[in-house]
Write a structure and sequence with these properties.
InterPro entries: Cyt_c-like_dom (IPR009056), Cyt_c-like_dom_sf (IPR036909), SCO1/SenC (IPR003782), Thioredoxin-like_sf (IPR036249). It holds the Pfam family SCO1-SenC. Keywords: Copper, Disulfide bond, Heme, Iron, Metal-binding, Signal. This protein has 14 helices and seven strands. It is of the alpha/beta class and about 350 residues long. It folds into two domains: about 180 residues, Glutaredoxin, CATH 3.40.30.10; about 120 residues, Cytochrome Bc1 Complex, Chain D, domain 2 (Orthogonal Bundle). The strands form two sheets. The protein has a five-stranded mixed sheet with strand order 5-4-3-6-7. Helix 4 packs across helix 7. Bound molecules: heme C (HEC). Heme C binds next to helix 4, helix 9, helix 10, helix 11 and helix 13.
């Protein structure tokens, strides 16, 4: 059920990316957003408008820390935007993620959730009294009563110009960074980012004939939390995953991590202990999607192994000839035997 919901959600909001919080409306100030008190992930009490919105360019999202589907994915996507924005986050633009479950989301839980994704300035995770958060969320466009129905769009705003818009975290991170940048006429980033293609799930399906489908899926759904050969992020680095794990296991895990966890699978339990902050969400992927992803991950592992072998070969080539080099035991790929 959940899985289907996710796919439906993806389809629904990938299609709408039109600024429809009325771009040129009169400035929405403290009367609109209110100065109700909220509590940050550091346990600090702040006033919503004056401390988080006033005079800033902001990106607002809605989350709850026990969410197992969209919120971690959205937050991971925002982390990718944060990567593109670099130093500008905390200087030119500020992220605000608001809990839709303040009854359960203590500042400590918000802190743990935040830490799993990002450690740096400019991103406030907000909880507080349920009444205050409800009012604030309502004004920002989240009018759902149930926490699981909360909107999955992000709200972009420039308080100085009064420009507000909605967008989807599934927009390409580079594209989103550009859109955010463009909200501020005074702000020019040093490097101009070429507007990347905007991908919808329909595009994804079309891509399957033209591009490596596993790569497209990976970039869109996994890369906020996983890298291949760069190191652990929210989840483990996936380089060489097929050597560590059985492919059937990987497939099952990619398709329904919660089910594997609940089956008392030792590997899953161990992973759960190691990556405490956030659980891998259920992404609603098909058997074919999982196969494509594994093919992509294996291809990446091969590419990296080849690149490393070439680098080693290059080094050997440039190294001064050592006495006894004719007994060199390197194999054809340049990898020394041990
Ligand atoms: C919101 C973050 C998030 C997203 C998005 C995500 N994962 Fe994960 N993934 C995790 C975490 C955290 C773990 C560690 C175990 C756990 O908590 O489930 C994990 C574990 C895994 C594992 C097991 C790794 C191992 O060392 O055994 C695989 C395989 C995996 N993820 C693949 C994927 C793929 C493929 C995608 C995209 C389709 C994806 N994940 C999307 C967070 C994420």
């Amino acid at each position: 059920m959940k899985a289907l919901c996710v796919v439906r959600l993806l389809l629904a909001f990938a299609a709408v990316c039109v600024p429809y919080l009325a771009a040129a409306s009169p400035k929405r100030g403290v009367e609109y957003f209110t100065n109700l008190e909220v509590v940050t992930q550091d346990g600090e009490t702040v006033r919503f408008y004056d401390d988080l919105i006033k005079d800033k360019v902001v990106v607002v999202s809605f989350i709850f820390t026990s969410c197992t589907d969209m919120c971690p994915i959205n937050t991971a996507r925002m982390t990718q935007v944060a990567d593109v924005l670099g130093d500008a986050l905390g200087k030119n633009v500020f992220f605000v993620s608001i809990s839709v479950d303040p009854e359960n989301d203590t500042p400590e839980k918000m802190r743990a959730f935040a830490d799993a994704f990002y450690n740096g300035p400019g991103w406030t995770f907000v909880t507080g009294s349920p009444e205050n958060l409800k009012t604030i969320s309502y004004q920002l466009g989240n009018r759902e009563e149930k926490r699981s129905d909360h909107i999955n769009e992000i709200i972009l705003g420039n308080d100085r110009t009064g420009e507000w818009a909605r967008n989807t975290p599934f927009n390409e991170p580079e594209r989103l960074a550009t859109i955010i940048q463009e909200m501020d006429p005074e702000w020019r980033m040093e490097t101009v980012i070429p507007p990347d293609q905007f991908l919808t799930l329909d595009d994804l399906r079309r891509y399957q004939v033209s591009a490596d489908p596993g790569q497209v899926l990976f970039r869109k759904l996994c890369s906020g939390c996983h890298t291949v050969g760069v190191g652990d992020r929210v989840g483990p680095d996936l380089l060489g995953i097929s050597e560590r794990r059985d492919e059937e296991w990987i497939k099952r895990y990619i398709r329904d991590p919660a089910a594997v966890r609940q089956s008392n699978d030792l590997a899953a339990i161990e992973l759960g202990l190691r990556y405490g902050g956030v659980r891998m969400p259920n992404l609603g992927l098909s058997e074919n999607d999982a196969t494509d992803l594994i093919t992509y991950l294996n291809g990446q592992a091969d590419n990296i192994a080849r690149a490393r072998a070439e680098a080693v070969a290059q080094q050997d080539h440039h190294a001064p000839v050592q006495p006894g080099n004719q007994n060199d035991t390197s194999d054809a790929a340049g990898q020394p035997h041990h």
